Q: What sequence folds into this?
């Protein structure tokens, strides 16, 4: 078990290292100078621009040799300092990310967990009952083929704009302040529901299809056949099939995390939800390279941690890995 | 009389039509008898074995009846058969080595299986332990996962598990195909021991390996292309085969001590006929060196001496 | 020798040719009777037809202004017009074209990289495989969209080709993993060992022995990559990170949202692009399942 976890940790560390390096390298390898873009925002005359240019270049350490810049970057990173933001001058990137994070998590965590559980259940049921299979499966395919952005737009249009059931954007109404009052919570949930639903539906489709296929495969396995030949009730056979199917499905969860995170980002953008996604759009519009870098890094770290959590869960669920034998 | 099979026809549904895998077999197996069922691949022996306990997805019973201890087995009724499965009819499958749930400890799996069949695991445990000991395993096996056992150990565990409720009929499907020679011997002897200790009443051993049958079977039933071809005691079949197919089958066995230069191995030229549209008359006549005009008419499987059956005009005429 | 007493046995040597022909006919027969394949293929081909022929029915510039603003669908403008006065149907067919081009190209790029890495790792094994696996895992874990956003933001994608290459460069790990697994099982087979023993180099063995035997599998992988790329491209385009001078379905949605189409109720501007993407990707996925059943008789449910 420990060997398995250690091996995974190594991969994640390596990935982290690569990701940080890419993140650091890209602005420096791309055509154009980030400082130029920064200066362009302040429409000053040319001599002032030159001075500002020099000032910013020095303060961002861009006049240092590359290797030194790299090390400085790592130093800052390990202290939790991701640099200053250009979009919101005066606020650090870390602060902005911390502010936006709870909203994104509020969407992602319930969406992933609930869609995973629901998708698995429905997929397993569809594998058993032909009638359910014929209706649920096409729906699942349509859902998984739907782009997150479009589902977000459709839900927003019909349920917010046309029918007015849900608010159009934001995380809560302008008039309210975040507080643990029932009024606020109700308002928050109203704003939260549609983005959550978008993520839930698309992800649900994918899990349902995956689980259905896995269960069908397990129901035809040799241990299933043996149990049935010995007259075991289908309840027991299904229980075993489900237990075996969960394992590859969990590996699938780790793989799909990246995709769902991407979906969350764009869904937030459509709904104007003040999470990491909206932060990205702001950064893009303002050519705020530091914010963009910081967000990217943050997303990577978050996904790596999530993957690690899933790996630990896998160890708990697969008794063979626990016993020290490589399960698969 | 433990098992009586009467004119059993079991076909497979395919897109091209029905494959007549088992096309009218009639035989009996007595209490305490170990009957070997032998033949080439595709002759219907595995179909016969499976149909007696659980029909696969595509299989269906066209006609025929099977009686076990005087009671008719509802072969086509999956729910009805459940009452008989494991208790009266049991099977050690071809894939015994992967027959156990990989993510359950063996003991736990057995207990869940027994409980689901209304048998108390705790009460059965002492007997289970004893039998495991008989085949050379100890209780620690119950605490392991299948992946921790060797192939032979898994095979033996499944054999114990399948016979735990002392079934009337045990079907051993290709028990030794995946094993090395010494393990084959041990497993075959285990079958005999189970019968001797009255764990099972009658056994049908399905295999293409005649040498194993010679070792442990009381009687041998030879099948070809879905039909029965010859039946007799193990000694009779191996030393004095009557049917040309049996003779050729035995002729293709290598004999210890003989060298290739001295006597060549004769195979049987040609291939078995398609069972989608089987030929009329004797199904072996295309490959039979003794075929003649009468063979266009199907020879019946008749008793030529007490306990000795053959389906061949040359023998019965 | 034995002479058959009746010429009615269907089996035996010398039956090889009709047997092989029979096999191919059997595959085609299954193909045409497989509901999923037929439905999926029909949808995809229909959309393809629209994408190819459509532009001949409309003006050549999907960005052109001058049409009446904000018109709902009518006999004049089948999909209506946009808020600033563009022809939505025109945008739609050109956008659909872009989806096909980017999807296919990106799938090709990702497929080629995935094949290279998957084949070599799966065939060579050992330390080569370990390194390639590690590389695959690293790229796999990194969320594609995040990388694409960053790179696209800096690079400002100018054409469909560069967008396709970008997407291809980030979506290959899944394909590499799948191909590697298949290669492992194939590499253990005798005909491969034979080739290896005769001293053939890795490339030749892979190209001549392994790849042809996996052709159906590779095709399935390609289709899934195609579907995934279309989705990714749509999202990128929606974020404004795709080529801004080329019309795409994602760009349509982007412009719709930024021009307050939701508030104005111009549903014809943003609903059709999404339907097209969902239909195309869904059709591809369903096709994939159907093809899998045709190629692997085991999976057939009839």
A:
């Amino acid at each position: 078990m420990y060997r398995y976890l250690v091996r995974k940790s190594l991969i994640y560390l390596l990935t982290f290292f690569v990701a940080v390096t890419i993140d650091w390298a890209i602005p420096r390898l791309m055509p154009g100078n980030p400082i130029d873009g920064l200066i362009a925002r302040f429409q000053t005359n040319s001599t002032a621009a030159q001075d500002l240019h020099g000032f910013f270049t020095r303060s961002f350490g861009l006049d240092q040799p590359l290797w030194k810049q790299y090390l400085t970057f790592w130093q800052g990173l390990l202290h939790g300092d991701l640099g200053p933001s250009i979009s919101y001058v005066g606020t650090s990137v870390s602060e902005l990310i911390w502010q936006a994070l709870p909203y994104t998590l509020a969407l992602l965590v319930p969406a992933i967990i609930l869609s995973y559980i629901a998708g698995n259940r429905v997929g397993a049921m569809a594998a058993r009952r032909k009638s359910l299979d014929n209706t649920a499966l096409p729906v699942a395919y349509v859902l998984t083929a739907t782009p997150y952005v479009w589902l977000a737009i459709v839900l927003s249009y019909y349920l917010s704009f046309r029918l007015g059931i849900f608010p159009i954007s934001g995380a809560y109404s302008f008039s309210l302040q975040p507080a643990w009052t029932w009024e606020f919570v109700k308002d928050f949930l109203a704003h939260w529901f549609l983005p959550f639903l978008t993520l839930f539906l698309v992800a649900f489709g994918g899990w349902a299809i995956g689980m259905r296929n896995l269960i069908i495969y397990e129901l035809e396995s040799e241990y299933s056949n043996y149990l049935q030949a010995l007259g075991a009730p289908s309840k027991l056979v299904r229980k075993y099939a489900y237990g075996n199917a969960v394992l590859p499905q969990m590996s699938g969860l780790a793989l799909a995390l990246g995709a769902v995170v991407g979906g969350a980002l764009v869904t937030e953008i459509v709904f104007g939800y003040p999470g990491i996604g909206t932060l990205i759009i702001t950064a893009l519009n303002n050519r705020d390279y530091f914010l963009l870098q910081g967000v990217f890094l943050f997303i990577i770290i978050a996904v790596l941690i999530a993957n690690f959590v899933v790996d630990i869960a896998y160890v708990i669920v697969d008794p063979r890995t626990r016993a020290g034998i490589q399960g698969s | 009389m433990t098992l009586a099979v009467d004119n059993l026809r079991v076909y497979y549904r395919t897109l091209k039509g029905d494959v007549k895998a088992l096309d009218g077999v009639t035989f009996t197996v007595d209490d305490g008898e170990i009957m070997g069922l032998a033949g080439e691949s595709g002759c219907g022996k595995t179909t016969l074995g499976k149909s007696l306990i659980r029909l696969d997805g595509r299989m269906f019973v066209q006609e025929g009846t099977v009686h076990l201890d005087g009671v008719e087995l509802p072969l086509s009724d999956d729910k009805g058969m459940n009452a008989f499965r494991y208790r009266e009819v049991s099977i050690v499958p071809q894939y015994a080595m992967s027959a156990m749930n990989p993510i359950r400890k063996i003991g736990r799996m057995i207990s869940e299986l027994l409980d689901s069949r209304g048998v108390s695991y705790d009460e059965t445990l002492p007997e289970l332990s004893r039998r495991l000991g008989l085949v050379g395993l100890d209780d620690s096996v119950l605490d392991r996962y299948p992946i921790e056992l060797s192939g032979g150990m898994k095979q033996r565990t499944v054999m114990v598990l399948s016979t735990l409720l002392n079934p009337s009929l045990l079907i051993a499907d290709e028990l030794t195909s995946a094993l090395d020679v010494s393990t084959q011997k041990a497993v075959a002897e285990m079958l005999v021991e189970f019968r001797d200790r009255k764990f099972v009443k009658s056994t049908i051993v399905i295999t293409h390996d005649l040498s194993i049958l010679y070792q442990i079977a009381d009687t041998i039933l030879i099948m070809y292309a879905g039909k029965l071809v010859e039946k007799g005691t193990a000694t009779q079949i191996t030393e004095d085969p009557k049917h040309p197919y049996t003779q050729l089958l035995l002729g293709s066995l290598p004999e210890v001590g003989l060298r290739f230069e001295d006597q060549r191995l004769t195979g049987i030229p040609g291939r078995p006929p398609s069972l989608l549209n089987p030929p009329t008359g004797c199904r072996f006549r295309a490959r039979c060196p003794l075929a003649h005009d009468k063979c266009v008419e199907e020879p019946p499987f008749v008793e030529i001496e007490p306990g000795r059956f053959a389906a061949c005009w040359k023998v019965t005429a | 020798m034995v002479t058959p007493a009746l010429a009615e046995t269907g089996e035996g040597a010398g039956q090889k040719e009709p047997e092989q022909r029979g096999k191919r006919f059997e595959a085609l027969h299954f193909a045409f009777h497989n509901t999923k394949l037929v439905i999926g293929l029909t949808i995809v081909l229909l959309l393809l037809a629209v994408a190819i022929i459509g532009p001949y029915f409309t003006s050549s510039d999907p960005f052109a202004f001058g049409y009446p603003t904000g018109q709902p669908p009518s006999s004049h403008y089948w999909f209506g017009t946009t808020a600033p006065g563009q022809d939505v149907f025109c945008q739609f067919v050109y956008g659909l074209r872009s989806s096909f081009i980017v999807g296919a190209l990106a799938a090709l790029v990702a497929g080629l990289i995935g094949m290279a890495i998957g084949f070599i790792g799966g065939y060579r094994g050992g330390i080569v495989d370990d390194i390639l696996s590690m590389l695959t895992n690293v790229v796999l874990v990194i969320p594609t969209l995040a990388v694409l956003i960053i790179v696209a933001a800096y690079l400002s994608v100018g054409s469909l080709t560069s967008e396709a290459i970008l997407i291809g460069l980030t979506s290959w790990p899944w394909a590499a993993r799948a191909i590697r697994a298949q290669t492992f099982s194939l590499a253990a087979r005798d005909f491969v060992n034979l080739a290896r023993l005769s001293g053939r180099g890795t490339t030749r063995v892979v190209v001549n022995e392994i790849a042809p035997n996996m052709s159906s599998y590779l095709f399935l992988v390609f289709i899934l990559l195609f579907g995934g790329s279309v989705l990714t491209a749509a999202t990128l385009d929606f974020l404004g990170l795709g080529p801004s001078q080329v019309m795409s379905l994602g760009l349509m949605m982007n412009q719709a949202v930024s021009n307050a189409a939701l508030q104005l109720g111009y549903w014809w501007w943003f609903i059709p692009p999404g339907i097209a993407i969902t239909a195309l990707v869904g059709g591809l996925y369903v096709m994939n399942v159907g093809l899998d059943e045709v190629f692997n008789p085991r999976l057939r449910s009839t």
Summary: Residues 30-59+74-299 of chain C form a domain with the MetI-like fold fold (CATH 1.10.3720.10).
